[in-house]
């Protein structure tokens, strides 16, 4: 009887699964080495360029799936992520400068100005004219009317100068002492480049060649009733003129139309203002009845016009202490601003559409 032959057994689950798993792991490791988001050192951190590269690759794959060609340059999202990463790196390493007043250009350009541009471009839709009257370098004193309950006009003027001036100069505002007494607000104002409205600080800024802005009406302009809109209040004793004369800096009149309508002030509750330590307590159509919604400014259409500069180089050093000269220049600046306001208002059809 022939011996039975042994059957050849073919294993169904041999080492093939192990080899395929090894191949997949090797492929993952190879792709990880090529991908910019994975680092050789697990303990290290990704750079801004690596993060932007990952976002750019995602955009390219997304656009290839949708059938659209991707741009060669980085997307807005990639730029934003890279900018945020660079901002954090700069703040952590301390590679930024702050001047003697506390002005921090890095945080101003990265945070404050972008936030203010939302109001400037989309809410108030500010038009700017006469920017050529501001010097390209050196000191100048910008003198503007003041209104609107809250000082949005100063902040919008700051954006107007920075974004429309050919050299993107910074405008340093002289603000009331109350601003710097408020928690957080005072520190933010210092970082944005502003300081107290006193003759000493004005002279120091001008002596350093800075573009400086002053609002001589002060709280009298901010807190006036809506029925008195665009009627300039008294300009004080002319301290700003003395500072300009000492520094021999030109005085640039600035007229702002639109700020009067953002919070139409119908009444001033003086008792509440006294109890709260405020210069006025406004009552508007929406505040305080509408609560927090009453703090939202109305979207009036703005126009900021910088007038022709008034030169001060022809005056000698004693002119800054001459009350007749300071009064004459103060009156000239006030009349120029008032006349320009009337001209701008005559050409405006509607407070919300210009």
Main beta sheet strand tally, sense and closure: 7 strands, mixed
CATH superfamily of the domain at 105-262 and 297-347: Glycerol-3-phosphate (1)-acyltransferase
- Derived from helix and strand composition plus strand pairing, the structural class reads alpha/beta
Number of strands: 9
Summed up, the helix count is 12
What is the overall silhouette? globular
**Helix fraction by DSSP (H/I, runs of at least 4):** 40-55%
Question: What does the radius of gyration come to?
Answer: 31 Å
Q: Give start-end ranges of low-pLDDT stretches.
A: none
Tell me what the CATH architecture of the domain at 105-262 and 297-347 is: 3-Layer(aba) Sandwich
- Between the first and last Cα atoms, what is the distance in angstroms? 114 Å
Q: Would you tell me the overall average pLDDT?
A: 86
**N-to-C order of helices and strands:** HHHHEEHEHHEHEHHEEHEEH
The name CATH uses for the topology of the domain at 105-262 and 297-347 is Glycerol-3-phosphate (1)-acyltransferase
Task: Give the amount of beta strand, in percent.
Answer: 5-15%
User: Can you tell me the CATH class of the domain at 105-262 and 297-347?
Assistant: Alpha Beta
Trace the largest sheet across and list its strands: 1-9-6-2-5-3-4
């Amino acid at each position: 009887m022939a011996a039975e032959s042994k059957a050849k057994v073919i294993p169904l689950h041999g080492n093939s699964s192990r080899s395929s798993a090894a191949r997949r792991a090797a492929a993952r490791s190879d792709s990880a080495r090529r991908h910019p988001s994975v680092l050789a050192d697990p303990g290290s951190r990704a750079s801004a360029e690596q993060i932007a590269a990952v976002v750019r690759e995602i955009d390219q794959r997304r656009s290839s799936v949708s059938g659209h060609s991707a741009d060669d340059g980085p997307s807005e999202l990639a730029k934003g992520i890279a900018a945020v990463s660079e901002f954090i790196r700069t703040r952590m390493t301390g590679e930024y400068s702050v001047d003697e007043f506390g002005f921090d250009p890095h945080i101003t350009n990265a945070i404050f100005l972008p936030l203010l541009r939302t109001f400037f471009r989309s809410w108030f839709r500010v038009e700017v004219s006469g920017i050529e009257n501001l010097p390209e370098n050196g000191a100048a004193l910008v003198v503007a009317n003041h209104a609107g309950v809250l000082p949005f006009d100063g902040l919008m003027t700051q954006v107007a100068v920075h974004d429309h001036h050919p050299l993107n100069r910074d405008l340093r505002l002289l603000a009331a002492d109350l601003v710097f007494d408020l928690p957080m607000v005072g520190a933010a104002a210092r970082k944005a480049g502003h300081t107290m409205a006193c003759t000493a600080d004005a002279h120091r800024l001008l002596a350093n060649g800075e573009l400086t802005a002053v609002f001589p009406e002060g709280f009298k302009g901010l807190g006036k009733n809506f029925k008195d809109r665009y009627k300039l209040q008294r300009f004080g004793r002319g301290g700003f003129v003395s500072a300009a004369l000492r520094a021999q800096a030109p005085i640039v009149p600035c007229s702002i139309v639109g700020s009067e309508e953002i919070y139409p002030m119908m009444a001033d509750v003086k008792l509440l203002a006294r109890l709260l330590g405020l210069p006025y307590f406004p009552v508007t159509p929406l505040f305080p009845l509408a609560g927090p919604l009453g703090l939202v400014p109305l979207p009036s259409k703005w126009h900021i016009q910088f007038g022709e500069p008034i030169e001060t180089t022809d005056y000698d050093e004693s002119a800054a202490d001459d009350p007749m000269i300071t009064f004459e220049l103060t009156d000239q600046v006030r009349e120029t601003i008032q006349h320009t306001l009337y001209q701008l208002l005559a050409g405006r059809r509607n407070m919300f559409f210009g």
